[in-house]
Write a structure and sequence with these properties.
The chain is α+β, with helices and mostly antiparallel strands. It has 3 domains: about 110 residues, Gcn5-related N-acetyltransferase (GNAT) (Aminopeptidase); about 160 residues, 3-Layer(aba) Sandwich (Aminopeptidase), CATH 3.40.630.30; about 90 residues, SCP2 sterol-binding domain (Nonspecific Lipid-transfer Protein, Chain A), CATH 3.30.1050.10. Helix content is about 25%, strand content about 30%. The strands form 2 sheets. A 12-stranded mixed beta sheet has the order 1-2-3-4-5-12-6-11-10-9-8-7, sandwiched between helices. A 5-stranded mixed beta sheet has the order 15-14-13-16-17. α3 links the parallel β4 and β5. Bound molecules: coenzyme A.
């Protein structure tokens, strides 16, 4: 087997192999052409068996917002697949090693991915740093009286306005959250492309919130899912929320009110939302919002532990903690670091907590508690109370959340 970085000449085979591995329909020539146009937005590694491409893994150049607001260069690992004839013989391991070492050399501090299965990536240093939830709201659910927005209005965009308005608005209102990533141009080509086609009949719309000064500060992307349960039976209409990002509390209220006030729908489904979604506290009947699923969202791997620890902010608590990190795949990361309220740096002081880079990835955004990892044997506490002290330093307000799938 041969493992190497891929070029544009390999791209079509790489995408088709990924589709086969992920049990997705194969790409049409038009779909493939769009992907090839966006090839330069990432870096791919492939595996070849006697010249035939049998595995593919790709890294997009992204940025992740970390506690304190710094946006760190991130390898967004995606399109991972190995043909079913070649699984479980180390293909993924070899491709990931090349891909992540390359990404680190190019200056990526983090790697992030969304996993098809939760049993694959821990061994490669990825920890679950953020969860997300799917909610279902009964049609006719209402906001509490008194929670109604008085200052914001909602405007439906004309389809031809969407492409010009939404990417910049997302950048403005969505990327400040801990765990968020900015979305590259090709992403928007894929997600909003249908709005550009004047001949296309759409069952999807985008609405924006406008504050009392006329400033647009949030948007919601809504798709209609419409089917007949059986012939002759009335249609069941559901709204599916693609994106809902708000830059203010008023925008948040106004956008949710808009969604809930759409007539003729049986329910609203909101997938991949924050686990601490505030909507519940705005509803007249909090039980009208049902949590359908809570699942891991972002898997994070620190590619450069020194840079990652130095970049994020820590809470202003008294104590500091010395953490020893193990990293078999990227040994330059291994060593001891003192994490304190002001900064984190290498240290030769006695170790308080010993952990693997996988667990450090889970803790890094502040959404997972070291005390829980210690209690479940995923982290070794060498000084009593050190895990709790580490939690106090790493704590953030809202739960880390991205809301972008790649
Ligand atoms: C997941 C996938 C990429 C793994 O590729 P692979 O070449 O078989 O993986 P490797 O042989 O390099 O396995 C490396 C390790 O991961 C383990 N592993 C791989 N896939 C696994 C899975 N689906 N579940 C649990 N463990 C898995 C292997 O057992 C091996 O463990 P070890 O190092 O302890 O021996 C491949 O099975 C695949 O394409 N699956 C379908 C598509 C998919 O899920 N892609 C991932 C999208 S995020």
């Amino acid at each position: 087997m041969e493992f190497r970085p891929l070029t544009l000449d390999d791209a079509a085979a790489a995408y088709q192999a990924t589709a086969t591995a992920l049990l997705l329909p194969s790409f049409t020539p038009a779909q493939l052409e769009r992907r090839l146009e966006a090839w330069s937005n990432g870096h791919s590694w492939g595996a070849f068996d006697r010249g035939r491409l049998v595995g593919h893994a790709r890294a997009l150049d992204l940025e992740t917002t970390v506690p304190g607001g710094v946006r760190l260069p991130t390898a967004g690992v995606t399109s991972v697949g190995v043909l079913p004839t070649h699984t479980r013989r180390g293909v993924l391991r070899s491709m990931l090693a090349g891909l992540l070492e390359d990404a680190r050399r190019r200056g990526a501090v983090l790697a992030s991915l969304r996993a098809s299965e939760a049993t694959i990536y821990g061994r490669f240093g990825f920890g679950v740093a953020g969860m997300c939830a799917t909610y279902e709201l009964a049609g006719g659910s209402r906001l509490r009286p008194g929670a109604r927005p008085v200052t914001h209005t909602v405007r439906l965009l004309e389809p031809q306005e969407v492409r010009a308005a939404i990417p910049a608005l997302h950048e403005e209102v969505a990327t400040g959250h801990v765990g968020a990533v900015g979305r590259p141009a090709h992403w928007w080509d894929n997600s909003l492309g249908e709005f550009d086609d004047p001949g296309r009949s759409l069952t999807r719309w985008v609405a924006v919130s406008v504050d009392e000064h006329g400033r647009t500060d949030g948007y919601v992307d809504v798709a209609l899912d419409d089917h007949r349960p059986s012939p002759g039976v009335a249609r069941v209409r559901r709204l599916v929320i693609g994106d809902l990002f708000a830059g203010s509390d008023g925008a948040y209220r106004a956008l949710w009110r808009h969604v809930l006030e759409v007539d003729l729908v049986a329910s609203v489904i909101a997938p991949r939302r924050p686990v601490d979604e505030r909507l519940r506290w705005l509803l007249e009947d909090p039980r009208a919002m049902r949590t359908v699923q809570v699942i891991d969202e972002q898997w994070l791997r620190l590619l450069d532990v020194d840079a990652a620890l130095a970049a994020r902010r820590y809470a202003a608590v008294g104590a500091s903690v010395v953490v020893e990190v193990r990293d078999e795949q990227l040994p330059a990361n291994a060593g001891c670091f003192r994490i304190g309220p002001d900064h984190a740096a290498r240290s030769t002081d006695p170790v308080d907590v010993r952990l693997d880079v996988t667990e450090l990835g889970a803790l890094y955004l502040g959404g997972v508690r070291a005390a829980d990892l210690a209690a479940t044997g995923r982290l070794e506490e060498r000084r009593a109370g050190a895990a709790a002290a580490l939690d106090a330093l790493l704590a953030v307000g809202a739960a880390p959340w991205c809301g972008s799938f790649f």
